[in-house]
Amino acid sequence: MRYPAGHKQQSREKILNAAADLFRRRGIAATGLDSVMGAAGLTAGAFYLHFRSKDALIAAAVAKAGERAHERWLTPLAGVTGRAWARAFLARYLSEEHRDDVESGCSVPSLAAEVARSGAPARRHFQQRLRGFFELVEEHTRPPDAAGRERAIGAIALAVGGVLLSRVVLDRTLSREILTACRTSAERLLELDGADPAPRKRAHPKETA
Protein backbone atom coordinates (compact mmCIF):
# COMPACT_ATOMS: atom_id res chain seq x y z
CA MET A 1 0.00 0.00 0.00
CA ARG A 2 1.38 3.39 -0.99
CA TYR A 3 1.21 6.30 1.43
CA PRO A 4 1.25 9.96 0.41
CA ALA A 5 4.48 11.93 0.67
CA GLY A 6 5.15 13.02 4.23
CA HIS A 7 3.08 10.22 5.76
CA LYS A 8 6.00 8.78 7.74
CA GLN A 9 6.96 12.19 9.15
CA GLN A 10 3.35 12.88 10.11
CA SER A 11 3.14 9.53 11.90
CA ARG A 12 6.38 10.27 13.74
CA GLU A 13 5.01 13.63 14.88
CA LYS A 14 1.85 11.94 16.17
CA ILE A 15 3.96 9.51 18.19
CA LEU A 16 6.13 12.29 19.61
CA ASN A 17 3.16 14.44 20.58
CA ALA A 18 1.42 11.49 22.23
CA ALA A 19 4.60 10.51 24.10
CA ALA A 20 5.28 14.09 25.24
CA ASP A 21 1.76 14.32 26.71
CA LEU A 22 1.67 10.86 28.28
CA PHE A 23 5.16 11.07 29.76
CA ARG A 24 4.28 14.32 31.52
CA ARG A 25 0.86 13.11 32.67
CA ARG A 26 1.68 9.53 33.74
CA GLY A 27 5.46 9.48 33.96
CA ILE A 28 8.01 7.82 31.68
CA ALA A 29 8.35 4.53 33.55
CA ALA A 30 4.57 4.09 33.80
CA THR A 31 3.95 4.69 30.10
CA GLY A 32 4.34 1.70 27.80
CA LEU A 33 4.88 1.78 24.07
CA ASP A 34 1.43 0.31 23.44
CA SER A 35 -0.15 3.26 25.26
CA VAL A 36 1.87 5.76 23.25
CA MET A 37 1.01 4.15 19.93
CA GLY A 38 -2.65 3.85 20.86
CA ALA A 39 -2.81 7.53 21.79
CA ALA A 40 -1.18 8.35 18.45
CA GLY A 41 -3.81 6.29 16.63
CA LEU A 42 -1.24 3.83 15.29
CA THR A 43 -0.59 0.13 15.72
CA ALA A 44 2.02 -0.99 18.21
CA GLY A 45 3.93 -2.84 15.50
CA ALA A 46 4.59 0.41 13.64
CA PHE A 47 6.72 1.81 16.47
CA TYR A 48 10.02 0.40 15.19
CA LEU A 49 9.51 2.01 11.80
CA HIS A 50 10.16 5.31 13.56
CA PHE A 51 12.35 4.62 16.62
CA ARG A 52 15.00 2.07 17.51
CA SER A 53 13.98 1.81 21.16
CA LYS A 54 12.00 3.40 23.97
CA ASP A 55 15.17 5.26 25.00
CA ALA A 56 15.30 6.86 21.54
CA LEU A 57 11.65 7.85 21.89
CA ILE A 58 12.27 9.33 25.34
CA ALA A 59 15.09 11.53 24.03
CA ALA A 60 12.99 12.80 21.11
CA ALA A 61 9.87 13.25 23.27
CA VAL A 62 11.80 15.32 25.82
CA ALA A 63 12.79 17.68 23.01
CA LYS A 64 9.22 17.78 21.68
CA ALA A 65 7.82 18.53 25.15
CA GLY A 66 10.24 21.44 25.45
CA GLU A 67 9.22 22.86 22.07
CA ARG A 68 5.53 22.66 22.90
CA ALA A 69 6.00 24.18 26.36
CA HIS A 70 7.93 27.06 24.78
CA GLU A 71 5.06 27.76 22.39
CA ARG A 72 2.45 27.62 25.13
CA TRP A 73 4.19 29.52 27.92
CA LEU A 74 6.72 31.87 26.29
CA THR A 75 5.31 32.84 22.90
CA PRO A 76 2.58 34.99 24.54
CA LEU A 77 5.39 37.05 26.14
CA ALA A 78 7.05 37.82 22.80
CA GLY A 79 6.05 41.49 22.90
CA VAL A 80 7.32 42.04 26.46
CA THR A 81 10.93 43.01 27.20
CA GLY A 82 13.32 43.50 30.09
CA ARG A 83 12.31 42.87 33.65
CA ALA A 84 8.64 43.22 32.75
CA TRP A 85 9.18 39.99 30.80
CA ALA A 86 10.73 38.25 33.81
CA ARG A 87 7.93 39.40 36.13
CA ALA A 88 5.28 38.27 33.66
CA PHE A 89 7.08 34.97 33.15
CA LEU A 90 7.22 34.22 36.88
CA ALA A 91 3.55 35.15 37.26
CA ARG A 92 2.62 32.67 34.51
CA TYR A 93 5.03 29.94 35.56
CA LEU A 94 4.22 30.00 39.28
CA SER A 95 0.47 30.06 38.73
CA GLU A 96 -2.40 27.75 39.60
CA GLU A 97 -3.06 27.34 35.88
CA HIS A 98 0.44 25.95 35.31
CA ARG A 99 0.22 23.83 38.44
CA ASP A 100 -2.92 22.15 37.12
CA ASP A 101 -1.67 21.77 33.53
CA VAL A 102 0.72 18.84 33.98
CA GLU A 103 0.21 17.49 30.47
CA SER A 104 0.95 20.72 28.61
CA GLY A 105 3.11 22.50 31.16
CA CYS A 106 6.86 22.92 31.38
CA SER A 107 8.70 19.64 31.02
CA VAL A 108 11.27 20.44 33.74
CA PRO A 109 9.09 19.89 36.84
CA SER A 110 7.16 17.11 35.06
CA LEU A 111 10.06 15.04 33.78
CA ALA A 112 13.29 15.99 35.58
CA ALA A 113 13.25 13.19 38.17
CA GLU A 114 12.59 10.50 35.57
CA VAL A 115 14.98 11.88 32.97
CA ALA A 116 17.67 11.71 35.65
CA ARG A 117 17.17 7.91 35.59
CA SER A 118 17.13 7.70 31.78
CA GLY A 119 19.95 7.20 29.31
CA ALA A 120 22.49 9.78 28.16
CA PRO A 121 20.58 10.93 25.02
CA ALA A 122 17.50 12.02 27.00
CA ARG A 123 19.64 13.68 29.66
CA ARG A 124 21.65 15.47 26.98
CA HIS A 125 18.49 16.91 25.38
CA PHE A 126 17.19 17.94 28.79
CA GLN A 127 20.51 19.56 29.70
CA GLN A 128 20.59 21.56 26.47
CA ARG A 129 17.14 22.99 27.07
CA LEU A 130 17.86 23.69 30.73
CA ARG A 131 20.95 25.69 29.75
CA GLY A 132 18.79 27.66 27.32
CA PHE A 133 16.27 28.24 30.09
CA PHE A 134 18.98 29.72 32.34
CA GLU A 135 20.27 31.99 29.56
CA LEU A 136 16.81 33.18 28.58
CA VAL A 137 15.96 34.34 32.10
CA GLU A 138 19.43 35.80 32.64
CA GLU A 139 19.32 37.93 29.51
CA HIS A 140 16.04 39.53 30.58
CA THR A 141 17.10 40.34 34.11
CA ARG A 142 20.82 40.81 34.68
CA PRO A 143 24.03 41.92 32.97
CA PRO A 144 26.02 39.04 31.41
CA ASP A 145 28.22 38.23 34.39
CA ALA A 146 28.70 35.39 36.86
CA ALA A 147 26.40 36.96 39.47
CA GLY A 148 23.60 37.34 36.91
CA ARG A 149 23.85 33.70 35.88
CA GLU A 150 23.86 32.54 39.50
CA ARG A 151 20.71 34.53 40.26
CA ALA A 152 18.97 33.23 37.13
CA ILE A 153 19.77 29.62 38.03
CA GLY A 154 18.56 30.19 41.59
CA ALA A 155 15.30 31.79 40.42
CA ILE A 156 14.59 28.94 38.01
CA ALA A 157 15.29 26.38 40.72
CA LEU A 158 12.74 28.18 42.92
CA ALA A 159 10.21 28.32 40.10
CA VAL A 160 10.59 24.65 39.15
CA GLY A 161 10.60 23.50 42.77
CA GLY A 162 7.58 25.64 43.53
CA VAL A 163 5.53 24.11 40.71
CA LEU A 164 6.60 20.60 41.70
CA LEU A 165 5.78 21.01 45.40
CA SER A 166 2.49 22.79 44.67
CA ARG A 167 1.41 19.73 42.67
CA VAL A 168 2.39 17.26 45.37
CA VAL A 169 0.31 18.60 48.27
CA LEU A 170 -3.43 17.95 48.60
CA ASP A 171 -4.22 21.12 50.56
CA ARG A 172 -5.07 23.75 47.94
CA THR A 173 -4.41 26.61 50.35
CA LEU A 174 -0.93 25.29 51.07
CA SER A 175 -0.40 24.79 47.35
CA ARG A 176 -1.19 28.45 46.66
CA GLU A 177 1.08 29.51 49.52
CA ILE A 178 3.96 27.59 47.96
CA LEU A 179 3.40 29.23 44.57
CA THR A 180 3.18 32.71 46.09
CA ALA A 181 6.23 32.28 48.33
CA CYS A 182 8.39 30.93 45.50
CA ARG A 183 7.26 33.68 43.12
CA THR A 184 8.05 36.39 45.68
CA SER A 185 11.44 34.87 46.45
CA ALA A 186 12.33 34.44 42.79
CA GLU A 187 11.39 38.06 42.04
CA ARG A 188 13.51 39.23 44.97
CA LEU A 189 16.41 37.08 43.80
CA LEU A 190 16.21 38.66 40.35
CA GLU A 191 15.80 42.13 41.90
CA LEU A 192 12.81 42.94 39.73
CA ASP A 193 12.12 46.17 41.59
CA GLY A 194 15.17 47.79 39.97
CA ALA A 195 15.64 49.40 36.57
CA ASP A 196 15.69 47.39 33.38
CA PRO A 197 19.14 46.27 32.27
CA ALA A 198 20.41 47.41 28.91
CA PRO A 199 19.19 45.04 26.18
CA ARG A 200 21.80 42.80 24.60
CA LYS A 201 21.90 40.71 21.48
CA ARG A 202 21.73 36.94 21.65
CA ALA A 203 24.91 35.16 20.65
CA HIS A 204 22.84 32.17 19.54
CA PRO A 205 19.22 30.99 19.63
CA LYS A 206 17.97 30.09 23.07
CA GLU A 207 15.96 27.01 23.90
CA THR A 208 13.85 26.40 26.95
CA ALA A 209 12.59 23.37 28.80
Key terms for this structure?
mainly alpha, globular, about 65% helix, about 210 residues, 9 helices
Question: Topology of this protein?
Answer:
Blueprint: H1 7-26, H2 33-39, H3 54-73, H4 82-93, H5 96-100, H6 107-115, H7 120-141, H8 146-168, H9 172-189
Helix pairs in contact: 1-2, 1-3, 3-6, 3-7, 4-7, 7-8, 8-9
Main sheet summary: none
Structural class: mainly alpha
* Global mean pLDDT: 85
Provide the succession of SSEs. HHHHHHHHH
Shape by Cα distribution? globular
Distance between the termini: 39 Å
Spans of 5+ residues with little confidence (pLDDT < 50)?
Answer: 197-205
- Helical residue percent band: 55-70%
Question: How many individual helices?
Answer: 9
Q: Output the radius of gyration.
A: 19 Å
Q: Could you give the count of β-strands?
A: 0
Beta strand %:
under 5%
Question: Could you explain the architecture of this structure?
Answer:
With 209 residues, this protein is mostly helical. Helix content is 65%, strand content 0%. Helix 1 crosses helix 3 and helix 3 runs parallel beside helix 7. It is globular, with a radius of gyration of 19 Å. It starts with 6 loop residues before the first helix and ends in a 20-residue tail after the last helix.
Short précis:
This protein has 209 residues and is mainly alpha-helical. It has nine helices and no strands.
